[in-house]
Amino acid sequence: MITTTTARRIIEEKIPAPGTESVPLTESSGRILAREIKAPFPMPRFTNSAMDGFAVRAVDTADATNDSPVRLALVGSVPAGSPAEFTIETGACAQCMTGAPLPVGADAVVMVENTSGFKAGKEVAIFKPVTAGQNVRRQGEEIRAGERLLLPGQKIGPAEMGVMATFGIGSVPVYRQPRITLYATGDELVEPGQPLKPGKIYNSNLYLLADLIRKVGAKVALQAVIRDDPTELKSFLTGALETSDIIISSGGISMGKYDYVRRVLLDLEVEQHFWKVAQKPGKPLFFGTAGETLIFGLPGNPISLFIGFMEYIWPTIEQGMGARTGDLIEATLTETFPREPKKVRFLFGKARIENGKIYCAPAAKRGSHMLTSALEANCILRAEPGDSPLQPGDTVFIRLLPWKTIKSCS
Ligand code: AMP
Ligand code: MG
């Protein structure tokens, strides 16, 4: 049996460096950027109006008041999307809509509300002065050409997609997603929606795992339920080993008479790196490799499987895609927390922020078969080995579930 830290280190050392590929911008959501992206041009690209109004020379408006407006000659109109083909001379102005290029000669925009309006005519009355630069978005004031926009390792979300679109980037360099095979083992398993005979249970783990794979941003290449039958298992795994970067199983990895997963993997010359980790729940945890393929065997109890995935496989997939996993966070317990003399104890729980401090409590249901204990949870609590339970007020480390939020209730 090895420690959780050693297990993480052994896995980390076996994760191959991520490959890269280019995907269309529209398909890049959730992917991890593989290269730095620099601004190909300044933003704003050209100096433009921040208001619907009139482009002017600011000095011409210095004396404008409501009672005694300044009158300027109207020389044209610039809608957004068209360049101005005239120059603003002293005493002149032009209609200029938000986002439209500022005509040469103008250095400010008077908002339409402070003028006689967009009426046809030769003159416009200006009721309020503007200073040079007012209501103008200067070329390059947000970003200069060549400035860094995005770093490799960043996850692409709405802001990143919007910024890449702003700069006309239609093809995005991202890290490849590992091809993942998921399989559940067990003669007792029945698919949801089917009738349940005595002694059978519904297969929950494959659904849970498949959604975790979607959440971490990878893709399930192959998914199956395999009977507790070494021949069936062997033929399935032979194929999966050829086509997968990561293989993850549910069940059949402990000491039971029908637990064939490990035996079949060893038969197929998978190299075992460990099989048992000093933790509760989820001690029987298999990790092996075959070439560059990583093979994980998770125990079948749903909470053991869920926690095993979050502690070992989630970070593996993130690293394998060029991303970084969030650190553990310190939190203060509000309830007692069981400890094990020689094992790390994990439990799902709920964390909240109160007066700027993070507090957490473990779920009330603590059995590794009690999947409903994960329903309310937003984190996994972790206690190092110890002889007595932790008490309210003690510190524990928590791992926030990345798809959940932590609420503030102060
Ligand atoms: P095992 O690790 O195969 O010994 O299974 C441990 C426990 O988890 C048993 O009670 C199984 O019935 C249960 N179990 C195994 N696989 C699944 C699954 N896919 N969905 C729900 N429970 C499962
Ligand atoms: Mg089983």
What features would you describe in this structure?
The chain has helices at about 5-15, 160-165, 205-215, 230-245, 260-265, 300-320; strands spanning about 20-25, 35-40, 50, 55, 70-80, 90-95, 110, 125, 135, 150, 170-175, 180-185, 190, 200, 220-225, 245-250, 270-275, 280, 285-290, 295-300, 330-335, 345-355, 355-360, 380-385, 395-400, 405-410. The protein is built from six helices and 26 strands. The strands form seven sheets. The protein has a six-stranded mixed β-sheet with strand order 15-12-16-20-19-17, sandwiched between helices. It is elongated. The protein folds into four domains: about 5-20 and about 175-320, MoaB/Mog-like domain (Molybdenum Cofactor Biosythetic Enzyme, Chain A), CATH 3.40.980; about 20-45 and about 140-175, Molybdopterin biosynthesis moea protein, domain 2; about 50-135, Beta Complex (Molybdopterin biosynthesis moeA protein, domain 3); about 330-410, Beta-clip (Beta Barrel). Bound molecules: adenosine monophosphate and magnesium ion. Magnesium ion binds near residues 185 and 300.
